[in-house]
Structures are given as structure tokens and as C-alpha cells.
Amino acid sequence: EVQVVDSGGGLVQPGRSLRVSCTGSGFIFGDYAVNWVRQAPGKGLEWVGFIRAKAYGGTTEFAASVKGRFTISRDDSKGIAYLQMDSLKIEDTAVYYCSRDGFDYWGQGTLVTVST
Amino acid sequence: SYELTQPPSVSVFPGQTARITCSGDALPKKYVYWFQQKSGQAPVLVIYEDIKRPSGFSERFSGSSSGTMATLTISGAQVEDEADYYCYSTDFSGHYWVFGGGTRLTVV
Fold first, then answer.
1. Which residues contact A71 (CB under 8 A, 6 or more apart)?
2. What residues of B are in contact with residue A61 (Cβ under 8 Å)?
3. Exposure string (b/e) for B28-46, b if CB count within 10 Å is 16 or more?
4. Hey, is the C-beta of B102 within 8 angstroms of any chain A C-beta?
């Protein structure tokens, strides 16, 4: 059974860092790009970024709002992708979702709260 | 920055056809994806690559695209179709992706 699970959210102070994880199972994780999408409380969906499969260079793309502060990496041997968030701002508060390429399977979301 | 524009809300009676539009300058050259999101849940893909429907998803949902506008059509809308709907696509470069602002569908 294909599963995608987000984890690692929590409360963090402005300016600090946090890493959230996306764990996939039931499929060949390395064959798929991994997307990150977020949703601030009461707001719409916002694309954060993605990492391509290694077969396509394993490169990343990011939204302008997070470029230079967020990075994405992957460990295909473990079936995990990571969203590293540095220099966090209050406006980064959101539920963070990951999904595999094609958007057919999503994690349940993990809440990141940036607050003093 | 690139934008996709959707109407904030659409309202229909049960059994009517609901149409949700999404406009963007790059749509003549780029695919559109549509997502359904019900309260407190993760998004669900309902249409991909403009017109394709994921296997097992209701045939009442269809997609089309012409020029700078894509349309999600829900035929015979039902109360359980009430949700927020988002379009998603990329700019001309293919490096930056964006969601539309979302459309709340009400079936009353």
C-alpha cells in the first residue's frame, strides 16, 4: 500500500530553524519527485518547492517567498525527503504537506508554528 | 510573479452543473492540475494535465482548457462536492509553480 507521511512540525521562534520530513512507502521512492505545499491558517494552498528524482538530477526549485531560506534534500535509501527551514518568519506559520510527483498521494500535513 | 486567477466562490443547486475557471497567461503552453480540498483534509487531485481524471474518481468531474483559461466542470453537482477547489500550474519558464487563490463551491 502506498503511503506518504509528513512529520516534524512544531513551535519555533522567529529566526530559528526547523526540519520536517516526508516518508514514503509502498513504492520506489527514488523514482519520484517530492513536492512541498503549505497552507497558512484560513488561507489557500501555496507551492513551496520540490526536489526532482536523481534520474533527473535531483535538483530543486523554490517559491520566491522561501528561496534562500529553505532547502530540500532526499535520502532514497530511507525513503525520506527533508524540508530544511532556516531564518523562519512568523508568516511561515502553516500546515506543510508533502506529496509524491503526480500529486496522487499526499501526507496528512504537519503544523509549523513560528511565534515568540 | 506569475498568478492564476479563480473566482472566490461558485454556488449551484444540487443536480446543476458547476463550472470553476482558472486564468493565467502561460496556460496555452502549460498543463493545469485541479485539487479538491475539504475542511481539515489534505488536497485531493481531481484533474491532471488539463483533462485527465485519476482512476476511480467520479466521472462527474471533467477538465478543459482553451487559450488562457482552464475550466473544471462538475456535472450534476452533489452536496458532497462542496469544497475548496484549486488550480495549479507553472509559469513559462517551468521553474516556478503556483496555485490559484481557490474557489469555494457551495451546493445548496
1. A60, A83, A84, A86
2. 95-97
3. eebbbbbbbbeeeebbbbb
4. yes
For residue A57, give the H/E element and its range: none
Task: Give per-residue pLDDT as tens, A59-94.
Answer: 999 999 999 999 999 999 999 999 999 999 999 999
CA distance A68 to chain B (A): 15
Cα separation, A95 vs A79, in Å, equals 21
Place of cell 530540500: A72
- Distance, first Cα to last Cα, chain A: 40
pLDDT category of residue B102 using cuts at 50, 70 and 90: very high
Tens of pLDDT, residue by residue over B33-63, are: 999 999 999 999 999 999 999 998 899 999 9
- Triad A98, B97, B64: Cα angle to 5°: 100
